[in-house]
Hints:
The chain is α/β, with parallel strands linked by helices.
Amino acid sequence: MRKRVVILGSTGSIGTSALTVARQIPDRMEVVGLAAGTRSQELDKQAREFGVSCLCIGDEKLRSDLEGGDRTVFVGEEGLCELIETTNPDLVLVAIVGVGGLKPSLVAIERGCDLAVASKEILVMAGEVVMKAARKKGVKILPVDSEHNAIFQCLEGHRGGSDEVSRLIVTASGGPFRTWPVEKLAAVKLEDALKHPTWEMGQKITIDSASLFNKGLEMIEARWLFDIPMSKVDVVVHPQSIVHSMVEFIDGSVLAQLSTTDMCFPIQYAVTWPERLSNELKPLDFPSLAKLEFEAPREDAFPALRLSREAGERGGSLPAVLNAANEVANQAFRMGALSFPGIWEIVEKTMSSVAHEDSQALEIVVAADLEARRVASSFLPSF
């Protein structure tokens, strides 16, 4: 079956990898809609290559860069929703950062489209809402993150349900500061934090990987994707990033998924699921791996895991507060307005200051996101 696919965030690292997959399996993946934030020239080039006539851009001022011929160009968050409604896809790949992907995701689910999720924020902020809506409409939520896609593959065909799962073990590279002493972290510079040891990603997620907030958000995401309590979600550091995650069962058996570090692997599986297809991706050469190492994360030095676990366990609006505060702090660090340890400090202070709501209703989540951004910004140092 050839699936009609809309890619939200087509000019980012996940989006461009998805288009690489589309080039490799054209008989199974038809790109019918593309959306980007501000990179209108790159979006135009993608649309020409894949013959896509329905586009969305984040800024009205850039609409004219894309118009012409038989194209329909939508704008902004509402435009993302209109893009989905117009193209009627089988699958929507959501790879846009922040709260902006939430409403289009719910629109896609309501229309009966399967969702390939690369944007952590959707499930971190509103996992309960999203998964409930998906179950009601009978659509599949397919994880694109390498870690969650690995868990998804390990659980496929397992008939015993979550009661037979002892732990979900999410692997982390440990980032560039895995072995740094705590006292050195205050001196971290942006160029240091952008040197990820194994993956090539955008700046925001690379900084999240360095602070381990990326892994903390993935813990919360796993809790909702696989209907597993936070107490059963663990993180282990695996510097080689070959084992993408593991599932431990109650009999002590552990299943793991391994591959080289290429996002095309999980993207292709999300697109072709439940089938597997041959591809041009580099397979593992086990003799050349030499060794696979595992170690416990240093939660005393990297508080992101503790804060994320707290948010995931308390639930309600707190994960949205954590996510929003981290986005503010992450951006402030990238702009040189905050120290690296300041990222954790801002998030913790914001979590303690914003009123907690038990519900994850959409309006409550959106309000919590806005309030957390305001509060986190007020904690930033003045210059």
